[in-house]
Every structure is written in C-alpha cells, then in structure tokens.
Amino acid sequence: MNKRRWLNIGLFGLVLLLALLAWQEAGRDTAPPRTPLTTLTPGAVNKIEIFRRGRDSIMLTGQGDAWWLKAPLRVAANRFRVESLLGLLTTESLAQFPAQGKDLAAFGLDQPAVRATFNNTELTFGGMTPLDQRRYVLAGDTVHLIVDSYYFDLIAEVADFASRNLVPTEQRITALATPAFQLKQAEGGLWAVTPPGRIRSADAIQALVDEWQHVQALRVSLYQSAPARGEVTLALAGQQQALHYRITAQGPEWVLARPELGLQFHLSEEQAKRLFMPEPVVDGRSEGAGAAP
After folding, report:
1. Domain map (residue ranges) of the chain
2. DSSP line for 50-115
3. From the CB of residue 13, how many other CB atoms can be counted at a distance below 10 Å?
C-alpha cells in the first residue's frame, strides 16, 4: 500500500473522528434559557415611577432618547440613568420562587424601602442574600433574585436623575453672553463678537460655540443659595425664553446655578477655562488666556 493511500485512510479516519465529536456535542444538554426579570421591553415604557421610603419619589416620562424628570423637579432627565433603569426590566433572574404562602418579611418584602413601576409593571425591592449579596425582587406573584447593581440607581439623589447637559439636547445656541464676551449669530450663520476682536478666529468662535453646545457637567446637585459672581445667558433657536445660569463658584470647581430649577451644575477648572476664557488671536499668535470673568 503506497503512502498516498495511507494518507487518504488517515484523513478519512480524522473526518470520522470529528463527526463523532460533533454528534456527541450536539447530544449534550444545552444550557437552560436565560430568564428575564420581566417580559416588558424597555422600548415599550413611557413612564417610570420610583417610591423610596423616607425620600422624594421620582417620576420620569418619555421614550427613546427623550426623557424628562417630572417630579419632584421638572427638567430633562439623565439619559444614561434612564437607560440603566430600563435595563432592570430584562436583567437576568438568577432564581425564582412563588410568593404565595411565603413569609415576605423574611425577604424584606413586607415593608419595602423601594418600589418601582414601569408603565403598570410594579417591582418591589427587598433585602439581600447573606452570602452572595443578591437582591430579592417581587414581580407579580413571583420572587426573584437579581444582581444588586440596579438598586443604587433607584435610591440615587434627586439631582442625579437630571441631565448634566447645560444646553438641552437637540436645541441650538443662537446667542451667548458671559461676563467676558458675547456672541450672536447673524443671518447666514456668521457670529458677531463683543467686544470686537475678543475672539478673532472664525474657527475659534465655532469651537467655543460647540463647546457650550455639548458640554456636560461633572455632576449635578440641588441648588444652594450663594452670591452670584456673574451670569451666563444662552438664547436657543425656536425658544422664546433664554437659559440663565448664575456663576456661584470659581476655582478648582466652578458652579453654574439655575435657582428656578433648584439645581446647580459643577464644572472642572479645565472645562471652565474652555468655556469662559477663549484665547484672543492676533496675527495667528495667541495673546494668552483672557482674564477670568
């Protein structure tokens, strides 16, 4: 028998072996299907209510990328926190058992600290397992065990549910006034700068407007009364009323407050430098950072 024949026999045997292994693998029991906490899909939700014992209740309404905090404050919502809350609906239920006949107090579900409703679907949050730190959640007539990460979104401070954008998404700046300079968009999209020459480069002006358009605060907190060190006014296309911010702190952290909303927005010193202290340009050379407002 020549070498080619032996090679063919060997290859044939290898194919048979691989086929046998594939058959054995297919015959094994597959992993059980993943069980979601609810059957409600995030895209179907347009209202979220969170009831927290000893804290303000939260109401959020919207859909897709457009969500609003309706209570206890009225302001655009933090989209990322809303997405996290909606993720709760489809998070994996690690274990389940019927609630009927069980002592709910044993699972911290008789007097829950937190309840949340998504449309008409209610979730009640109880205590935790002592060993693996899983959270008991009552959904309908079933008690589930889930990872505990979502609970911290539910008990967050009210201000954490507010958007960190200084300019609402999808709204466009048409004028901007700070203590150091003013910008106003004219017909044709050109920007007029006051005082003249404060920002001489058209590219620098557009970069500054874009910075204001998209900036997000490091964090948002409830408003605390403080003397104003200056004000910012932002006019928006299609909006009759401008946005007004009070500058109440400067330095390593800047604070821009909106007392009528009951909120204040915290910026880093670097963010504030880009927003308030654009560098004038003369003959292509920077004059250095402008004075702080």
Report:
1. 42-161, 173-286
2. EEETTS--EEEEEETTEEEEEESS-EEB-HHHHHHHHHHHHSB--EEEE-TTS-GGGGT-SS-SEE
3. 10
Reduce the DSSP state of residue 197 to 3 states and report it.
Answer: coil
Beta bridge partners of 144: 96, 137
Residues forming beta bridges with residue 182, ordered by sequence position: 177, 194
State the DSSP string of 240-262. SSPEEEEEEE-SSEEEEEETTTT
Considering only 44-58, 95-109, 266-280, which range has the smallest mean pLDDT? 266-280
Amino acid at site 105? A
CB-side neighbour CA atoms (13 Å) of 155: 11
pTM of the full predicted structure?
Answer: 0.80
Q: Which amino acid does the sequence have at 256? A: L
